[in-house]
Write a structure and sequence with these properties.
The chain is an alpha/beta fold. The chain has nine helices and six strands, in the order H-E-H-E-H-E-H-E-H-E-H-E-H-H-H.
């Protein structure tokens, strides 16, 4: 069974084992959407909470959402979602401080293992904010064929993403042109952007 986090737990499984058990638990016909980012901006937090509400309303129950750690993005997303469909991958120090109403999963004994698990689990990554850690995870995910949906309206979140190539940030085939244009619009209202991301 999948190991749920409790204080003092030790993770004996590899990132590959954790991913395999998560997928086994939800079934072969399920999908994981990862929310990637780390930002303290008020506008970004409003966007993420609105995005969580839109995703849970629009996407079918076989779509699950994955967070990583205790970032402001993770906290904001957890405020607008159904805890039964949202999982948070945590390391040992984070487990003691996690108060989010989500399914906390022991994903590694150090940050590298947690990041590797996060990079392996997602079918789609919605990128809210850039940064070295986000770039590392996104590159690993792209290498194995996952899709990246960057939200440009929060600044450098999607437009540069710290070193990802322009080709990697092109519109995925499954995202319509109208949705993509809205995600790139810096002046778009929060509700419109979150609706576009969920429709993508």
């Amino acid at each position: 069974r999948l190991q749920r986090c409790k204080n003092g737990d030790k993770v004996k499984d590899s990132p590959q084992d954790v991913v395999a058990r998560m997928r086994q638990e939800v079934g072969d016909q399920s999908y994981f959407v990862c929310i990637l980012g780390n930002s303290s901006g008020t506008k970004t937090q409003r966007l993420v909470t609105s995005l969580a509400q839109e995703l849970h309303t629009r996407l079918p129950p076989n779509v699950f959402f994955v967070l990583s750690g205790l970032s402001d993005v993770a906290k904001a997303f957890s405020e607008g979602q159904d805890g039964d469909r949202t999982w948070n991958l945590l390391g040992p120090k984070q487990r003691e401080r996690c108060t989010q109403a989500v399914r906390a999963v022991c994903a590694g004994e150090d940050p590298d293992e947690v990041h590797e698990t996060f990079a392996l689990i997602g079918d789609v990554y919605i990128v809210i904010e850039g940064g070295p850690e986000a770039s590392k995870v996104a590159k690993q995910a792209l290498t194995r064929g996952a899709s990246i949906v960057p939200i440009h309206c929060v600044g450098n979140a999607g437009s540069s993403l710290c070193g990802l190539s322009a080709e990697a940030l092109e519109r995925p085939a499954f995202v319509g042109e109208a949705c993509w244009a809205l995600l790139s619009d810096l002046k778009a209202p929060t509700a419109a952007t979150s609706a576009a991301a969920s429709a993508a």
